[in-house]
């Protein structure tokens, strides 16, 4: 019991000493506290224009976010042997002197994000940071990264460099044997070259979404055998080489949505046996090659919505059997016998829904689940359009009504035919004289002309009434 009491007293004294050591040299504009993870120094939103001259020697974390810092000189933070986390986000940093982080031998996380005036980093900016594991360079408007910049960081695991101005995958990534996560989205990258990702054998997640990628070279991911998440969505890809994803046997998520792909090739996914989520939505896909998804036996969801598909063959999935969810909305589907397998699958599995029909006209606007397919006498599928034609042929033929109307029109034509040669001569008269023709005719001729006009109007009205009556009979 005495031993436990002494132990508690020692721990209490040690905690009190640590708290005193942490707060004793705390910068004036900062707040310092000692916790389980060591001494924490918070100087965020303090209006600082330069780095404080002194920090607690025991500091494990320093937060200098949202100040007005513009420059980091050499050994800007002195010697802090316990510091593991340093955050300098949302400042106005425009230059970092090589060696600015010397004296921080245990630093594991460095955040420099949202320093839009930085734009350039010296090749030796991160010298002496051999234990750094996470580096955040997001939204710094960097145009490039020096080839040797990250060579000083052999232990780097995660790089966040999104929202920058790179036009290619930074060459500084090559050879980072311990890198596991690379975030390069929302930039200006135009291509993934065959050597862009060389040596990244432990890379598990790569995000290149929302760039300007037009080309992925063959074998670009050949060294990334550990890759599990690959995001290439919202780029400008119109085609892919057959071996674009060769060797990615551990890949579980592949996002190719929001590109300009026109078809899906069988060779693309040949090695992706572990794939669980495949996004091909928001492209211009009009054709899926037979067997394109045949090796994806573990697929949980396939997104093909927002394309130009009018047909999808079951052969695209054979010989494997796709058991996951299938998203097919916003496509101009032609709901004929070629999609009967899909309708049957919708009913049996419940893993497909919302397949609106655009054609044929007899089922346009319906969902595929509402379409009925018939069977011929020999057991073959009959398209909905053919079923409607067969049904309509069982009713009365429209030919007799059309013949009656034709005969009635012929009779009226004879009644309206001119009876005197003079009338034909008058009708044949052309030129400016026609304007005064009525005034030059005698009253007798005018009376005959009026009677003929009344006969013409009455006959036309009678013809119209007859046609409407015959049409109503035909519909009934």
From TrEMBL:
Principal place of residence: secreted
Cited Gene3D superfamilies: Ribonuclease Inhibitor
Domain LRRCT: 331-382
Gene name of this polypeptide: NYX
Protein's recorded name: Nyctalopin
Organism: Equus asinus
N-terminal signal peptide: 1-18
InterPro entries, alphabetized: Cys-rich_flank_reg_C, Leu-rich_rpt, Leu-rich_rpt_typical-subtyp, LRR_dom_sf, LRR_TM_domain-containing
Alphabetic keyword roster: Extracellular matrix, Glycoprotein, Leucine-rich repeat, Proteoglycan, Repeat, Secreted, Sensory transduction, Signal, Vision
């Amino acid at each position: 019991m005495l031993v436990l009491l002494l132990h508690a007293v020692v721990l209490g004294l040690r905690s009190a000493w640590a708290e005193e050591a942490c707060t004793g040299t705390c910068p004036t504009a900062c707040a310092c506290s000692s916790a389980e993870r060591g001494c924490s120094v918070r100087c965020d939103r303090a209006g600082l224009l330069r780095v404080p001259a002194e920090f607690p020697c025991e500091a494990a974390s320093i937060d200098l976010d949202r100040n007005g810092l513009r420059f980091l000189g050499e050994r800007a933070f002195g010697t802090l042997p316990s510091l593991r986390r340093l955050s300098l986000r949302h400042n106005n940093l425009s230059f970092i002197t090589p060696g600015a982080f010397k004296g921080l031998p245990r630093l594991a996380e460095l955040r420099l994000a949202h320093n839009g005036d930085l734009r350039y980093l010296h090749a030796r900016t991160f010298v002496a940071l051999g234990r750094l594991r996470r580096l955040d360079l997001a939204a710094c408007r960097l145009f490039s990264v020096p080839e040797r910049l990250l060579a000083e960081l052999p232990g780097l695991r995660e790089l966040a460099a999104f929202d920058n101005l790179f036009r290619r995958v930074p060459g500084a990534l090559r050879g980072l044997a311990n890198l596991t996560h690379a975030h390069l989205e929302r930039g200006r990258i135009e291509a993934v070259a065959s050597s862009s990702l060389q040596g990244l054998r432990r890379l598990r997640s790569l995000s290149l979404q929302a760039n300007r990628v037009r080309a992925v070279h063959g074998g670009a991911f050949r060294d990334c055998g550990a890759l599990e998440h690959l995001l290439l969505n919202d780029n400008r890809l119109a085609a892919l080489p057959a071996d674009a994803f060769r060797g990615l046997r551990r890949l579980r998520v592949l996002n190719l949505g929001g590109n300009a792909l026109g078809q899906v090739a069988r060779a693309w996914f040949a090695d992706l046996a572990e794939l669980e989520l495949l996004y091909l939505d928001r492209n211009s896909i009009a054709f899926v090659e037979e067997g394109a998804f045949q090796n994806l036996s573990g697929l949980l969801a396939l997104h093909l919505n927002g394309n130009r598909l009018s047909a999808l063959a079951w052969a695209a999935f054979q010989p494997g059997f796709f058991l996951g969810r299938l998203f097919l909305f916003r496509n101009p589907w032609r709901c004929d016998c070629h999609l009967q397998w899909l309708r049957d699958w919708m009913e049996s599995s419940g893993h497909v829904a919302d397949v609106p029909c655009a054609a044929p006209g007899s089922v346009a606007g319906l969902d595929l689940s509402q379409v009925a397919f018939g069977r011929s006498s020999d057991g073959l599928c009959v398209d909905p359009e053919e079923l409607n034609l067969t049904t309509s042929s069982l009713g009365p033929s429209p030919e007799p009504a059309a013949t009656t109307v034709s005969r009635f029109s012929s009779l009226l034509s004879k009644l309206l035919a001119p009876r005197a040669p003079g009338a034909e001569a008058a009708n044949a008269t052309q030129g400016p004289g026609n304007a005064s023709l009525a005034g030059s005719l005698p009253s007798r001729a005018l009376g005959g002309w009026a009677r003929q006009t009344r006969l013409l109007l009455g006959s036309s009205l009678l013809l119209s009434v007859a046609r409407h009556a015959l049409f109503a009979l035909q519909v009934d």
